Amino acid sequence: MEYSPKKVKSLLEEKDFNFKKKYGQNFIVDENIIDAIINKSQIDETTLVLEIGPGAGALTYKLALKAKNVLCYEIDTTLKDVLGNNIKEFSNVDV
C-alpha cells in the first residue's frame, strides 16, 4: 500500500476505530510532517528505529522505507489490523 493520509483515514473508518482518550491518541497523517521527522532523524539503511505507539502506521511506513529495522510497540490492540495492513509489505518491521 502506498502511503496517503486519505488511505490511513479510510482504513481507520473501515475498521470502525475510535480514538481512546486514556491513551492520548493523536495520529500523525500529514505527509509533510512525517517527511520532516524522517529527514531530521538522519535515518539510513543501517539504523534500528524503536517506535513507541505507531498507531495506524503512517510514520512506520515511511520509517520502513529508510531504516534497516523498525521495532514498534503499540499498547492499543484494536489497532492490530490497521497497523498490519499498512506495513504488510515490509519484512523489516516488527510489532
Secondary-structure map with pairings?
Blueprint: H1 5-14, H2 31-41, E1 48-52, H3 58-66, E2 69-73, H4 80-87, E3 93-94
Parallel strand pairs: 1-2, 2-3
Descriptive overview:
It is a single chain. With 95 residues, the chain is an alpha/beta fold. The chain contains four helices and three strands. The protein has helices at residues 5-14, 31-41, 58-66, 80-87; strands at 48-52, 69-73, 93-94. Strands 1-2-3 form a three-stranded parallel β-sheet, covered by helices on one side. The longest helix has 11 residues, at 31-41. The protein is globular, with a radius of gyration of 13 Å. The two termini are 18 Å apart. The model has no long low-confidence stretch (mean pLDDT 89).
Strand order of the largest sheet: 1-2-3
**Element order: H for helix, E for strand:** HHEHEHE
Determine the N-to-C terminus distance.
Answer: 18 Å
Question: Helicity, in percent?
Answer: 40-55%
Structural class: alpha/beta
Mean of residue pLDDT?
Answer: 89
Offer a few descriptive terms.
95 residues; alpha/beta; three-stranded parallel sheet; 3 strands; globular
Give a quick precis of the structure.
By secondary structure, this protein is of the alpha/beta class. Helices cover 40% and strands 13% of the residues.
